[in-house]
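INFO batch 0412 | record 1 of 1 | parsing
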Amino acid sequence: MKIFFIMLVSAICFCGRGNNGTDMERKEHNEIWRDEYANILLEKQNASIKPLSFMVKDINNYGVPELIICVHGTCLQIYTFDTGELINMGEHEFYTGTIRYLISENKQYSGIFCYFVSGGLEHYYYLEVNDNLEIQELWNNDFAGISKTYGKKRKKVKYISDDKLLIEESKKVIEKDNDISFLRITENTIKELRDKSKDHTQKNGDIRARIGLDHHVKSSRSCKKKRLCVYGLE
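INFO prediction complete | emitting tokens
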């Protein structure tokens, strides 16, 4: 009985140390990712001749936000910080100036919704991060009747994904103009990102970025004007 009691106490102590260790690791991550992201932003700023902007947001719900770098408004580069290491999750180039990046107010959809016009079609995509960067086309809309012009038979709206809820959410974010506020990469925004006393992450439902609020979305119905304001290119 005495031996059993000793083993029970030891197990409780071990579990307590395990939980504290986890909390300490989370705290350490929260202290480190800012500097890691700031360093990569500084490298990008010094090496690139194209306009750059960024935001930080947890798009996989793992507890540590990802760094999303927007290059010239058309390309997204995604970085994450895991187990003490900065990881390049990949990038995607849309090759079009009509691209818009949007965020849902629903925490269930923590990724990035993408909208762009190409080939006479409006395209709707969803970007998320799991083991790597994943992007899927949800649906498209032949708003210009281009299919008929080329003799193609199709409905005006074509659904690519089987996820009806995700498709409906993409329609909501477009209707609400929930565009993401990217920040210009400058000396000041990099400095603010390093500030551990502030919460720099962009949340679902928080359309404006937490830092550099002078770069937030301006009310404009012009797609070109909106894109310039949102992605720090104006």
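INFO post-check: Strands lie at 52-57, 66-71, 75-82, 85-93, 100-102, 112-118, 121-129, 133-141, 157-159, 183-184.
INFO record closed
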